[in-house]
Design a protein that fits this description.
single chain; alpha/beta; TIM Barrel; eight-stranded parallel β-barrel; 7 helices
Length: 218
């Protein structure tokens, strides 16, 4: 298991680097501006990403599959974002594809094209249960099948137990990380994150107060 850390603001970089240097097994999702930036690199983020790597964190680049109006982006636009990331910030370990919509053959084909486009370790985030067809129709490494509150009271989908290496969980609203982490370990999920913040746009604006301890426990 590794800790999947949403680094969605410059202010979160230093603590994430410290946790990685302390021996935490971290994968950082670098998200300069809901993507790579608009027409140019976001100031300071090339250094931030370099520092994350130097600290020992693996870095995924954040790609939102939806636009600001909730519509699915075209494949060409998404590939252009991936190109911009590499041009402005260097090659990543992989990619974090956010807002994966419900299964269709067309969506699976688009996702697989993106997964294959630049290679690397890939995570797709529907944030909820996902059709097993995505597993069979794409080579995506991990799907985030939980991204809400109440993780310790929730139930995995039937296919997850036999495919736990391709499952990740982001447990929101956790006052303490321990119970959620214990359950995630029992389920053998490959990626995990917990935060005290609840559902909503601010869930990843800060790291939880227990972040450093959680990073060493995972």
């Amino acid at each position: 298991m590794k800790l999947l850390v949403p680094v969605y603001d410059h202010s979160l970089v230093a603590a994430t680097c410290s946790a990685a240097q302390a021996g935490g097994h971290l994968i950082a999702i670098a998200n300069p501006d809901s993507g790579p930036g608009h027409g140019k690199a976001v100031s300071g983020w090339k250094t931030d990403i370099s520092n994350l790597r130097k600290a020992g964190a693996q870095v995924l680049y954040y790609v939102d599959l939806m636009d600001d109006h909730g519509k699915e982006k075209q494949e060409t636009a998404l590939k252009a974002e991936m190109d911009s990331y590499i041009s402005w910030y260097g090659a990543p370990v992989g990619w974090f594809f956010d807002d994966l919509a419900g299964y269709s053959d067309a969506r699976a084909a688009r996702l697989q094209h993106l997964v294959a486009y630049k290679g690397g370790f890939t995570v797709a985030n529907p944030g909820t249960g996902v059709s097993q067809s995505y597993l069979t129709k794409t080579t995506t490494n991990v799907f985030i099948t939980w991204e809400t509150t109440g993780y310790t009271k929730g139930h995995p989908q039937a296919w997850e137990a036999a495919n736990s290496a391709r499952v990740g969980a982001m447990a929101l609203g956790e006052a303490a990380y321990g119970p959620a982490l214990t359950l995630a370990q029992q389920r053998h999920v490959s990626l995990f994150y917990a935060t005290n913040a609840g559902d909503g746009g601010a869930a990843y604006d800060h790291l939880p107060p227990y972040f450093a301890k959680m990073a060493t426990a995972v």
